[in-house]
From TrEMBL, chain A:
ABC transmembrane type-1 domain span: 40-223
InterPro entries reported in the protein's UniProt record: ABC_transp_perm/SBD (IPR051204), MetI-like (IPR000515), MetI-like_sf (IPR035906)
Name of the protein in question: Osmoprotectant transport system permease protein
Membrane topology reported for the UniProt record: Multi-pass membrane protein
Keyword entries, A-Z: Membrane, Transmembrane, Transmembrane helix, Transport
Keyword Transmembrane helix: yes
Localization terms from the record: Cell membrane; Membrane
GO biological process: glycine betaine transport; transmembrane transport
Species in which this protein is naturally found: Labedaea rhizosphaerae
Record-linked Pfam families: BPD_transp_1
One GO CC term on file: plasma membrane
Keyword Plastid: no
TM spans (from-to): 12-29, 41-66, 73-95, 101-118, 158-180, 205-226
Family stated for the protein in its record: Belongs to the binding-protein-dependent transport system permease family.
UniProtKB/TrEMBL annotation, chain B:
Superkingdom classification of source: Bacteria
Listed InterPro entries: AAA+_ATPase, ABC_transporter-like_ATP-bd, ABC_transporter-like_CS, CBS_dom, CBS_dom_sf, Gly-betaine_transp_ATP-bd, P-loop_NTPase
Organism whose genome encodes this protein: Labedaea rhizosphaerae
GO BP terms: glycine betaine transport
Gene Ontology MF term list: ABC-type quaternary ammonium compound transporting activity; ATP binding; ATP hydrolysis activity
EC number: 7.6.2.9
Keywords associated with the record: ATP-binding, Nucleotide-binding, Repeat, Transport
A GO term from the CC aspect: membrane
EC category: translocase
NCBIfam families linked to this entry: proV (TIGR01186)
UniProt protein name: ABC-type quaternary amine transporter
Span of domain ABC transporter: 14-250
Family per similarity comment: Belongs to the ABC transporter superfamily.
Length: 237, 393
């Protein structure tokens, strides 16, 4: 369906702007600025919200299983399995169940975002020196207090690193969500690819791609700042 | 050993009765029917080979390990009937490598237990300063993180954290095991000083017998399954080990170790030495020596401090006593251990001058005094096992 409509749409544009068909990518971005910026914001917003949901679920899952080697193995295997499903396929398979738009996008992104967070949560909590938790218990901290005031604080750099990897991962995958009419820069990429060969099609796909890359770099920079602000000086590397 | 400061005891008695720990799937219990009374305000050292269950036994006192059966009473209260977290806030806990929270500052580490107990902020702040002072750390350490401290400093903070809420009982699990020997010696001295002041009930676990001898009011030598092989004062164990296993653990040089436990003030000093002052004339000295039928004298300065050894032969050529004779090399204070005294005797060649609190001469000590003392201690403890076997078993 997107195939036929895309083609019609593409050729129409090519005719209309035939005279100025060959613009540079920078000119193209300049012309499309008013469209690209909202799309980038939507893209970032979708990714960050899904990362947040994945972080809550992932840390929760990690906390539930980290004490048991078997549980840790199963949780890691399951979340890895999700990641092996091609994103295009997963989103495609979700459309009949959840319809188009936001729901399949969110579900897919959250599922993909889980692995790095779950794995790093387990690794981070597992890496806490047993002598420290022994001391914490020994001076009268309850289980929950040890977890929230000691273990999670010490595992935080690892967990945050997992969240950061997730975000990067989702930046790319979110673009594919445009296939399910999800929001973001994927729209540009898809419509560009669909019109491949016609005027400015490459520019359009390239603009979307560049947008994703720039967005990813900016967000990564923000993570560096978050990491410095939220990690105790006593455990900063 | 001295029981004269009873009124300052802040520790409480701990009683373990038939305490057993059995792990699922293991035939033999890890700790089998352990019974012991730990007197209030004493330092008890559990010493034994690794894996003998000494740490397990200690951890059952604060219920980090739940006993399978038996009774534990702390200060008259059954430890098994209190909420474990509440119980642990009333028992100090210090472990190897300190186990400090790396993400918290020194001050925050020390403030953890008072915080859990809900002290108000001002009280906690004052307490942190007090504790730093107690363990001999400058106040500037308060804002540092554990990784910015040396091993010895971390260990001090560990002890400060354990003592912050002023618990009557302190459990220490090989706390000085991971620091270099010099720092360990210093930390042990600090602990002795602290304990002299605080008089907590301390249960200290180590595999280092010398450490046990140095720190313990009593030592429990433990065998497999935490079986008490001998539970007695260091002097008694050194003088008469209960069996070959204990003897093996005591190791070579039991008598030399015994010497570290006794102080010069505890033995009878010789006072028959001829002492003269720098103002005496050589003729006076010769007269004194002849009267006492001695060949040498000790020259003292105006404040009675030992200056030089003077042999009768050296008198002939001497005009005055100001410079003649051999300078006293090594003196011993009444506070010194007999080990220090022996060292001085060996370097001085027979006699060592003993000085009092202000450095004044109080007598001499020789090798006979030392050997007699060791002999005496051995005789005192010769018949120990007929009485103590029942108490320890």
């Amino acid at each position: 369906m997107p195939d036929s409509s895309g083609r019609t749409h593409g050729s129409a544009v090519a005719v209309t702007i035939a005279g100025v068909a060959i613009v540079s990518i920078w000119e193209f971005i300049g012309q499309r600025w008013n469209v690209l910026v909202p799309e980038a914001l939507l893209h970032a917003s979708a990714v960050l919200q899904c990362t947040l949901i994945a972080a809550v679920l992932g840390v929760l899952l990690g906390v539930l299983v980290y004490r048991s080697p078997a549980g840790s193995a199963i949780a890691t295997a399951l979340t890895s399995a999700i990641l092996t499903i091609p994103s295009f396929a997963l989103i495609g398979l979700l459309i009949p169940v959840l319809g188009l738009g936001v729901p399949p996008t969110v579900v897919a992104l959250v599922l993909y975002g889980l692995l790095p967070i779950v794995r790093n949560t387990i690794v981070g909590l597992d890496g806490v020196d047993p002598a420290i938790t022994d001391a914490a218990r020994g001076i009268g901290m309850g289980r929950a207090v040890v977890l929230t005031r000691v273990e999670l604080r010490l595992a935080w750099p690892a967990i945050l690193a997992g969240i950061r990897v997730s975000t990067q991962l989702l930046m790319g995958i979110a673009a594919i969500a445009a296939y399910a009419k999800g929001p973001g820069l994927g729209t540009e990429i898809f419509s560009g690819l669909v019109r491949a060969g016609s005027a400015n099609a490459t520019n359009e796909a390239l603009a979307g791609t560049l947008g994703v890359v720039v967005l990813a770099l900016v967000v990564d920079g923000i993570y560096v700042i978050i990491s410095r602000l939220t990690t105790s000086r006593g455990i900063r590397v | 050993m001295s029981e004269t400061t009873d009124q300052k005891i802040s520790g409480v008695e701990i009683e373990l009765a038939e305490v057993t720990k059995r792990y699922a799937g293991q035939k033999t219990p890890a700790v089998d029917g352990f019974s012991m009374t730990i007197p209030a305000g004493e330092t008890i050292v559990f010493v034994g080979p690794s894996g003998c269950g000494k740490t397990t036994t200690m951890k059952m006192i604060n219920r980090l390990i739940e006993p399978t059966s038996g009774q534990i009473t702390i200060g008259g209260e059954s430890a098994l009937k209190i909420d474990p977290d509440q119980l642990r806030r009333r028992i100090g806990y210090a472990i190897q490598q300190a186990g400090l929270f790396p993400h918290l500052t020194v001050a925050q580490n020390i403030a953890v237990v008072p915080g859990l107990l809900g002290w108000d902020k001002k009280k906690v702040r004052d307490r942190v300063v007090e504790m730093l002072d107690l363990v001999g750390l400058d106040e500037e350490f308060a804002g540092r993180f554990p990784r910015q401290l040396s091993g010895g400093q971390q260990q001090r903070v560990g002890v400060a954290r354990a003592l912050a809420a002023d618990p009557p009982v302190l459990l220490m699990d090989e706390p000085f095991g991971a620091v270099d020997p010099i720092t360990r010696g210093n930390l042990q001295d600090e602990l002795l000083r602290l304990q002299a002041e605080l008089r907590k009930t301390i249960v200290f676990v180590t595999h280092d017998f010398d450490e046990a001898v140095k720190l313990g009011d009593r030592i429990a030598v433990l065998g497999n399954q935490s079986k008490i092989l001998q539970y007695d004062t260091p002097e008694a164990i050194l003088a008469n080990p209960a069996d070959d296993t204990v003897a093996g653990f005591v190791g070579a040089g039991a008598s030399l170790k015994q010497l570290t436990l006794m102080r010069v003030r505890d033995v009878e000093l010789k006072t028959d030495l001829v002492t003269v002052s720098t103002e005496d004339t050589p003729a006076d000295v010769r007269q004194k020596l002849t009267n006492a039928r001695k060949t040498y004298a000790l020259v003292l300065d105006r404040r009675n401090r030992p200056l030089r050894w003077l042999h009768v032969r050296e008198l002939a050529s001497a005009g005055s006593l100001a410079t003649v004779g051999r300078p006293v090399g090594d003196t011993v204070s009444v506070q010194s251990t007999l080990q220090d005294a022996l060292e001085a005797i060996l370097t001085e060649g027979g006699n060592a001058a003993v000085t009092g609190g202000r450095g004044e001469y109080v007598g001499t000590i020789d090798i006979r005094t030392v050997t007699d003392t060791i002999q005496q201690v051995r005789e005192e403890h010769e018949n120990d096992h007929e009485n103590s076997a029942g108490g320890a078993g």
